[in-house]
Amino acid sequence: MPTILGQNQYGKAENRVVRITRDGDTHHIKDLNVSVALSGDMDDVHYSGSNANVLPTDTTKNTVYAFAKEHGIESAEQFGIHLARHFVTSQEPIRTARIRIEEYAWERIATSDASAQFIGADEVKHSFVRKGQEVRTTQITFDGESWQIISGLKDLVVMNSTSSEFWGYAKDKYTTLKEAYDRILATEVSAKWRYNWTSDDARMPNWEKSYEQTRTHMLQAFAETYSLSLQQTLYQMGSRVINSRSEVDEIRFSLPNKHHFLVDLEPFGLKNDNEVYFAADRPYGLIEATVLRDGVEPQIPVDLTNL
Predict the structure, then answer these.
(1) C-alpha closest to that of 74 among 21, 34, 115
(2) Catalytic site residue 12?
């Protein structure tokens, strides 16, 4: 049976690069995990093994580190834009570059006045602890003419210890779940949002400010929504972002419900008045949805794990 080559790409995945910027005694850290995927005129290498159009993946790795030095890392998005533009414009066979980046945040270690006597103020400025709140992500795709920037975050665990209910749901003979009128609502947020910046002719967003503000709006909506379902909370989080950030046209969430079940303490003669819970890690409900600006067509892939 005759065969043909379908969609394909290649590159160097998970290049770990840490860039230290020294502003006198004060240091700044950008810690990235960069994956490069290139596609274009690659038929010959698949059909005959000719590498004439193949830029070695080792070269793409070296480019990541060289660009960290030459261009610095202002933001994950800006760094990915530099890389994508370079690969597409410098290598004729390469038509599209896709750059995926995870960013790991660090914060400065605060010291007491007593410890400062021994450490010294200048040393405090270059001591850091890795943040454990979330991982920042971005995917930059460039085809020589237009850009697609999809940024986001994952592993952001949030909880409301009250102001959440779940009742009035459909029931059948297999339903055993009791209705809840005051419950814990907790989830681990994975979110991807698509920027409407697609052309060098348009004004580029402030990537750092946009990320921080988008994250803030999500968290504020989660905290301020009296929730009757996790779906309702998801929609409020997405709507807050779309209504508050004009540069974002689409946001997709994947929210696993981190269930907390009341422990039955009656066998011990104790009353559990919404105080003691069992935190179950699996199985879990998984709520996923996209919130869009009215009139906008969805473009973020449904399977978030592939971003």
Answers:
(1) 21
(2) yes
- The confidence score (pLDDT) of residue 112 equals 59
Q: How far is CA 33 from CA 56, 101, 107, in A?
A: 19, 6, 18
One-letter amino acid identity for 39? S
Q: Mark whether 30 is an active-site residue.
A: no
Q: How far apart are CA 200 and CA 203, in angstroms?
A: 7
Decide if 137 is catalytic.
no
Q: State pLDDT tens for residues 10-38.
A: 999 999 999 999 888 889 999 999 999 99
Query: Which among 12, 86, 192, 258 is annotated as catalytic?
Result: 12
Distance CA 217, CA 225 (A): 12
Q: Which of 57, 96, 141, 290 is catalytic?
A: 57
**How far is Cα 146 from Cα 94, in angstroms, rounded to an integer?**
15
CB 245, CB 213: distance < 8 Å? yes
pTM of the model: 0.89
- pLDDT tens string 266-294: 999 999 998 899 999 899 999 999 999 99
Look up residue 163 and give its two tokens: 């102001």
Which residues face 147 on adjacent strands? 142
